[in-house]
Amino acid sequence: MDAASRLLARHGLSRNDIACWAVHPGGTAVLAQVAKKLELAGDALRFSYRIFENYGNMSSPSVLFVLREIIDSGRPQPGQKGMLLAFGAGFSAFAALIEFS
């Protein structure tokens, strides 16, 4: 999870500053490993698990379905930050920091 750690450090943030995690649901093993590496609370990836259960792994763009699920839940509050993590072919990873308005 170097991509996430570097992005957080660049902005002077820690994982505790992130209210919502939209992680590419590449499978339950992928999600479990992300949660472990980032030391996230048990329910932090619940939206990613929900998308995986309902649609499976739709490749890296599935992170946008997770983001939509988070927004539709009404959970994000203005000013809260979120992290998007997507994984591509091979060992590629993408991280984006967002702020809800």
Structure in words:
The chain is an alpha+beta fold. It has one domain (2-99): Peroxisomal Thiolase, Chain A, domain 1 (3-Layer(aba) Sandwich). It is built from four helices and three strands. Strand 2 (81-87) and strand 3 (93-99) form a beta hairpin. The termini are far apart. 28% of the residues are buried.
Write the topology of this structure:
Layout: H1 2-10, E1 18-23, H2 28-38, H3 46-55, H4 62-72, E2 81-87, E3 93-99
Parallel strand pairs: 1-2
Antiparallel strand pairs: 2-3
Helix pairs in contact: 3-4
Which term fits the overall shape? globular
- Full CATH superfamily name: Thiolase/Chalcone synthase
Largest sheet: 3 strands, mixed
Model regions low in confidence, pLDDT < 50 over at least 5 residues: none
What's the count of strands?
Answer: 3
Q: What is the architecture at the second tier of CATH?
A: 3-Layer(aba) Sandwich
Structural key phrases:
alpha+beta, three-stranded mixed sheet, 101 residues, 4 helices, Peroxisomal Thiolase, Chain A, domain 1
Brief account:
By secondary structure, the chain is an alpha+beta fold.
